[in-house]
Design goal:
By secondary structure, the chain is of the alpha+beta class. It has 6 helices and 4 strands. It has a two-stranded antiparallel ribbon. 7% of the residues are buried.
């Protein structure tokens, strides 16, 4: 099991024909939550170590999840809110924000040098992209 399918996606048929395993029903628990999000502390300074005893339901997929002590300490130390989604949904949301794993021809907005970029052509019109030399000058 890995995240390789995020980089090289295959259909179920392609995966099976190449000898890979395929899981349609990923094991998970639902309906075993011991508390709800509205009963959790809202302020990071109020987070308690026993928070790791609670089981929550993801607001996106309803999968049960829990916090681990290191996570609670990190969120408290960083003054961050407790997340309302399970790891899988948060991971998928982050992956959806990435550029596609492809390269397109692009041109520097400063010097017109041509190079490969992970920004698709429509994004290149919206965002300035620079060649390495112009980027370094911009950041200096």
């Amino acid at each position: 099991e890995s995240i390789i399918s995020e980089y090289f996606p295959l259909t179920k048929e392609e995966a099976l024909s190449q000898g890979y395993r395929w899981e349609d029903d990923i094991p998970m628990t639902v309906g075993q939550e011991t508390t709800s999000h509205d009963k959790l502390p809202a302020r990071p300074e109020d987070y308690q170590p026993d928070l790791d005893n609670e089981i929550l339901a993801c607001v996106s997929c309803r999968r049960n999840y829990r916090f681990i002590p290191m996570e609670i300490n990190f969120l408290k130390r960083s003054a961050l809110s407790l997340h309302r989604e399970c790891f899988n949904c948060r991971h998928q949301r982050r992956m959806n924000m990435r550029n596609p794993r492809m390269l397109w021809d692009g041109a520097c907005n400063r010097c017109d040098a041509v190079f490969k970029t992970s920004y698709p052509p429509d994004k290149q019109k919206e965002l300035p992209i620079f060649c390495e030399a112009c980027y370094k000058r911009e950041m200096a």
